Every structure is written in structure tokens, then in C-alpha cells.
Amino acid sequence: MNAGEDQDAVREVSEAEARAELDRLLSDPRFHATDRAKNVLRYIAERYFEGQTEGVKAYAIALDVLGRSPRFDPNTDPIVRIELSRLRSALGAYYEAYGPELEISIQLPIGRYLTIFSKSSSTLRATEEGEGEDMVDLAPTQEHSPRLFGRKIRGMTSGVIALGVIGAGWLLVDQRAVMTLRPTVTIDVVAAEASHQEEANLLNDYLVTALSKFRTVNIVAKREFVSTAAPAIQPRTQMHTYSIELKYYADSGDRSVWWRAVDGQNGGVLASGVERVLVDGRSGEAVRDEVVSILARKLAATRGVISNLETHDEQDKAVLGNTCVLRAEYELDEGRQSDVRHAKICLERTLQIQPGNSDAAAALARVLMDADLGELKPETLDRAGSLARRAVSLDPMSDRAYIALMMTQFYTGSTEAAIAAGNQALSLNPHNPDVLAKLAIVLFNSGYRDAAVSLAQDASRNVNAIPGDARLVLALDAYSKGNYSNASLMAEQISRVDVVIAALKVAALAEVRSPAARGGLHLLASVMPGYRTELVTWMKRRNYDPVLIASLQRSLSKVGQATSPGASAIMPSHGERRRMLLPSDLNLL
């Protein structure tokens, strides 16, 4: 470090110590970063050693390290932000796991391309007080010096956890538990005919960019795949690798892509498919964009091919981390309250071990609000909001983080802020059907029904599974327009057990005077035993449209008016009804 640096920094970490830590880190096989990410880290560090203490420009990184042309525009090409986000995640995971045994750590503050070298809190305390234990600040704030990321902590607050405690907690949580990481994925598009290889190359580039926007995968260049997959994963940590191979066909009237997902360890084919898009007189760019959107949704969405592969074989294992996040998102979309509460435990344990896990923080924020069947407690909303804001600060390019922020803001009545957060999520990842669906439900309940329906319809196209919120928006829209039969049909297609969905099913059936409404009322009672007095409060607390709430109330009051000349043929059997009910409701039979 140069002579112009402040004396505290010199006393904290010398240039020789910083260079030694950089070299050690980059050669450590436990540091799971791609070769390109490591090159970026060394480049930024070298510029810091040369005196660029304000940080490196994205343009310089793009040209000098990532091989972009002088025409590079960071506003249209997010490659630098993507690489730095991955690099920060790799650094965070590494120092969370091995920080206690190291004297110096390297950080990359969000918003600046700058390396910060600091001695761990345990080292400082041992030096100053002759002790060997101290806590490490795992959540840096703006109070930290731009040079000195680490600083000694004098006391412990409820939001700070000692690494020693975390280590002990890891053992107490479950000796068998495995911390799963996002899978590493490569993309390779080849043309069926050599004359179309240029189109295939463009498709490859655009698809890589689209997939990089999802937080379900880490995309790496094919040449980096071997070096990424080769190092042994640390004990009780697991990361899968996949190769997505695609073949591009360009006929006069359509564009087709055959694809297959290959296991990066044994080469086995895990899934495959063919996607076809008609040209219909459209430009090549428009057709390519549609192909990219279809493939991105099919491969990388929460219910996409890769996520399904990640969770398929882990059902009976004690896993935390990425698999826990994927399960939580699945349960939020399709599960029961008991499953959501189980996901909450899994996410809490994940954050105990990885407090810097943005995905887990975002998922837990949503789970906290969904797991509370009654009136949302202020402390629940406060914690959910804190987690969502932390998720955004940890990963400002994450659509997951902004969706969590949108829902917390919406439930606290900050409708405009919620919609703004939802639009930010949409701009970060316009291909994610879950983003479209969640923003749609917020817009619908905020009175922007046409926009909500349009987003819900978009979220329902070219997906392996239509998000439950997209179906709910379309069902509520049909119900609001008096299309009760369609509303009932669409509501029945939502597998999630939810108070509003259960009430909507009953209300639509009551409006068409179906005797099956009585059976639906029992199901509603099993979800919310006190629905007669609690449903309105529950929906108001979650900012549902007052007109919709009143309409559902009127429809539910009609259930007793439904006649049932053939009820035995369409109502649930006695045994099925008993399984629906809570013990307190059995006297109704």
C-alpha cells in the first residue's frame, strides 16, 4: 500500500500482508470461484496496491479482464455486475467458513470495485487484550471505513452472532446436515447447419445473459467448467454441476432448439426437450428474444428443470442452503401451512450458518408473512422487512430480494413503494414467471387489474408449472367479472391450500348454486376454523381489495341457499370430509 494511505490502515494491514493473503486465497482450493472471478479479484487488488483507493471502473474491468470491446456499455451489458456479485458471494461463503482460522480477510464493498483488507476481530482482540476469542462483524454497514472493513466489536447485540457460536450451532443443528450451494451451469449452443452458426452464437450469448439474471444458478463459461467443478467441496457442503447442451435449427417458418441437461460429474443425461417458435413474419431479434425467454423459464425458474433436479433427490436428506431456499419457494407456491413452517426452520438454520445468504434472507422474509395465519403481528412484519432490506443490500441485482421487499412493503400499506420494488424486480429479471406472478397479485389488489391480468397471463406461458399467484389473479378477475364457472375452474387448478383460495372456491360455487359449496366450506374451516370472523381481518391486513372482500362475504353467505338434489354424487364422501376437518369441526357431521 502506498505512502499516502492513512496510518490506521498501515497499522491494520501492510501491503506485504495484503499481497500474501491475496496469493494464499487465490491458490486455496477451498475458495470456490471461477478462474475469471479470480482474475477480476487480482486485477482490482493490483489497482488498489497501485494507489487507486477509490476503486476501479467497470469499463476498465470489462476491457482489461473480461475481454469486452472498447464499445462496452455497462448500462446495457451487466457482465461486470454479474461477475462481481458472484465474486462477493464466493468471498462471503469462504470467509464465513474459514474466517476464524485466518488473520486477514478480503472484502469487496457493494457499489464499489475496491478490495478491502482487514484483520479479523479475533486477531485484533488477541493483539490488544491478549485473548483469543472475539466476534466478527458479518454485516458491514456504511459506518465502516472504506479501507478498513473489519473492526473490533465491543459487545454483542441480538443481530450479531459470534462465529464460534455459529460453529457450535452448526454441530447442534444436525450432524448430518449438508449446506447446498447454487449449482454451476455451462451453456453450449451449436447450429445444426454451419450456415446458422452465427445465429446460434448470438442465441448462446443472449441465453447466458438471461440465465445469469436468475438466482437459482451460477452460469460459467465452458472453458472454466472443469476448473470450477474439480476442487473438492468442503465437508458438509454440496454443489452440483450441469452442462446444458443445445442444438439450434433455423427453418424458413420457425426456429427450434433441442436441449438436454447433462450431469457435470458423470455425464448422464438428466432431462431433455425441444422448444419451437414460429417466425410469423417477425424480425430475427423478436424471434430470438422469444426463444431465449422460453429456454430461460424452462431451465432456470424456481420450478424449472435445474431447480427440479436440485430438489428431486434431496427430499429425505437434512439439507440447508440453496435446496432449502428452493423448497421454501415451492411451498410458498404450492404447499400447506405446515410445510411453510418447516421451510421457516430450514431457512433460520441456513442463516445461522450463512448470515450473508441473500437468497435465504429473501425467502425467510416471505415465509414469515405466509406462515402467520392470523393477523400479521407488527414484530413479524418488522423482521420480514429487515430481512428483505438486508437481502437487497447483500445482492442488489437479485429479483428474489426485491420480491421479498415488495411483499413486506405491500403488507405494511406502502403500496407505491411495493409496486416500485416489484417493477425493479421485473427490470432485473423479466423472464422470471414468479416475479410476474407476485407483481400481478400486488397490482390486482391495488386496483390495477388490467395490468395484473396481463402479467398473470405472461407468467402462465411457456412454463413447467404455472405459478399459483398467476392462477389466483386470473381466477379473481373472472370472479370479479361474474364469470363464476371459470373462476371456480381456475381456482380448482391451484394446488396451494390458502385461505383466500379456499374462500374463492366456495364463493364461486355458491354463486352457481352448486351443492359442492358445502364441502368447500368445510375445507375453508379446516384452513381457518374461525373464518366467519377472521377472514375479513386476515384479508384486510394483507391489503386485499375491499370490494373483493365484500363480494366474497356476500357469496359465502349464500352457501346455505344452495340446493342439493344430487348432492351425494358431487359432494366429498363422508371419509373425505372427515379428513378435511379439524377435531373441533367433527360435530358438524
Provide a brief overview of the structure.
The protein is of the alpha/beta class and 589 residues long. It is built from 27 helices and ten strands.
Which secondary structure elements does this structure contain, and how are they paired or packed?
Blueprint: H1 7-12, H2 15-27, H3 35-49, H4 58-64, H5 79-98, E1 104-107, E2 116-119, H6 121-129, H7 163-173, E3 178-180, E4 184-191, H8 197-212, E5 218-219, H9 225-229, E6 237-238, E7 241-250, E8 254-263, E9 269-278, H10 284-300, H11 305-312, E10 319-321, H12 322-334, H13 337-353, H14 358-371, H15 378-394, H16 399-411, H17 415-428, H18 433-445, H19 449-459, H20 468-480, H21 484-492, H22 499-511, H23 516-527, H24 531-541, H25 546-556, H26 567-570, H27 574-580
Parallel strand pairs: 3-6, 3-10, 4-5, 4-7
Antiparallel strand pairs: 1-2, 7-8, 8-9
Largest sheet: 5 strands, mixed
Main-sheet strand order equals: 5-4-7-8-9
State Rg: 26 Å
At the fold tier of CATH, the topology name of the largest domain is Serine Threonine Protein Phosphatase 5, Tetratricopeptide repeat
Helix content: 40-55%
Provide tags for this entry.
3-stranded parallel beta sheet, globular, alpha/beta, 589 residues, Serine Threonine Protein Phosphatase 5, Tetratricopeptide repeat, 10 strands, Rossmann fold, 5-stranded mixed beta sheet
What does this structure look like?
This protein has 589 residues and is an alpha/beta fold. It folds into 3 domains: 7-167, no CATH class; 179-312, 3-Layer(aba) Sandwich (Rossmann fold), CATH 3.40.50.10610; 319-328 and 335-588, Alpha Horseshoe (Serine Threonine Protein Phosphatase 5, Tetratricopeptide repeat). The chain is built from 27 helices and 10 strands. The strands form 3 sheets. It has a 5-stranded mixed β-sheet with strand order 5-4-7-8-9.
